[in-house]
Amino acid sequence: MNPRPTTAIDAIADAYTQQLAELDPIGATYMGISGHDHQMPDLSPDGHAAIAELERTTLMQLSACTPADSTDEVTLAAMRDRLGLGLETYEAGETLSDLNVIASPLQGMRDVLDLMPTATIDDWANIASRLRLMPESIRGYIASLREGARRGLVPAQLQVSEGIKQAAELADPKTSFFVTFAAGAQPDGAPASGGLANDLTVAAGRAAAAYGELVTFLTDELAALAPADDAVGRERYALHSRGFVGAEVDLDETYAWGLDELERMATEQQQIIEQLAGPGATMADAVRVLDADPTLTLTGTTALREWMQTTADAAIAALDGVHFDIPAELKTIECMIAPTETGGIYYTGPNEDFSRPGRMWWSVPPGVTTFSTWREKTTVYHEGVPGHHLQVAQAVLVRDQLNSWRRLVSWSSGHGEGWALYAERLMAEFGFMDNLGDRLGLVDGQRMRAARVVVDIGVHCRMPAPERWGGGIWNAEKAWELLKANVNLDEAFLRFELNRYLGWPGQAPSYKIGQRLWEQARADAQAKAGASFDLKAWHTKALNLGSVPLAILPDALA
Prior knowledge:
- The chain is mainly alpha-helical.
- It has 2 domains: 223 residues, no CATH class; 269 residues, no CATH class.
- Helices cover 63% and strands 4% of the residues.
- The model has no long low-confidence stretch (mean pLDDT 95).
């Protein structure tokens, strides 16, 4: 494919990306944009206003442009959607109440350090600089939360109380991650010394102390203002849902579909259970059968990481040239045990020159030492190939076709997580999940995603709950009972999952909704093409688009 000439719209998109990286250095690190690893963002109301002004100015510039080709048409539609939504979110004040248990500035300021290079003295100097600037960002964050409270936008009590616990761990002067991370610095293979060692020690201590200021603010000010009700209400929820899904969905129809999908997944799962453990067997019976097989159990995080790597590498080798054409740059994925201990599993993309490869991370909770491969093979396909790694890294790669905004910035959970769930089912379609244990793990995960749709929309939009789940209006207690009955996870894991849904409205359902929309797009394309439909070619075209809002995906594919 010949390189595509840069257009006026590309130039605007590239300029936006560079200016956004300057305003959001943490985001720049995640996107793999170099030159900002020593900086921290302004998280105060002024910082949010600066990003909103960038969005506003960019939209005005785009309004004067005429698309030069079909790629420009997609870029224009996608930027209008995403930047326009960003402005709506800002004007609604939502950026001033950003606190939850998993993906808010509280976690982001710490988690970005996992992605920063640590090989050289310069790398650790960047880390020292970022730690040194962290107190200013935290004070800006406090100012935003305080302004949000003044406007009546306060996170729920549960999110505040859990945030206090997380911040307190990072504030401990002896055991804070910042302190232990800095103390373990080994640039060029030797312990840090001299001025660098002192800079790291002082900066880490100040970062921990700043988290102590956050604890004090959350405890002494915000907690008393936080509402007991976890629900954000339909109007706010609809805005969040559009952001995560990348399309407007009928919340009533989607809630009803979620209930039906949950029943369908339960029926499919029961069929597999009975094949494994006999007629009338329960999930617990099937788990006992599978966990009794020592070949399906891993002990220790070293064994887990090695199995992840082997499974991911094998998928790349098996799919390449058969179901996908996988470029050489994408054939490397690093499987990592995350320094955090929250229980999450996630993917981070490569940087632009692929010197930092795509990585799959597993954050193992304290005390967890055994792992069941039958539960997690589908997770490796979700995070690796053909899931996030193939999707995200392919977008980074096609720099001669797409501008930097399309490759690095544009993202909606419905598109990305929807593709990853679609990829799990795709592996079953391709014959990689025929083992009954692996199949059970796949369907068990998909059943959980269906439960998320019901719980998330149900609680936040105050939907009527079916009688079997308590009747009346959904709340956290009824959601907990539904999750316990439908999701096969340890209670601590499951409680964290529920807390996540309650504090991150619209995100969790975007996985299953996104999968639904991906499957609809494929079915529509297949119906239109008939016997000439080429699935491999369709996937290639879809991946080469980068992440686009699902509302415009069908037109972009056409």
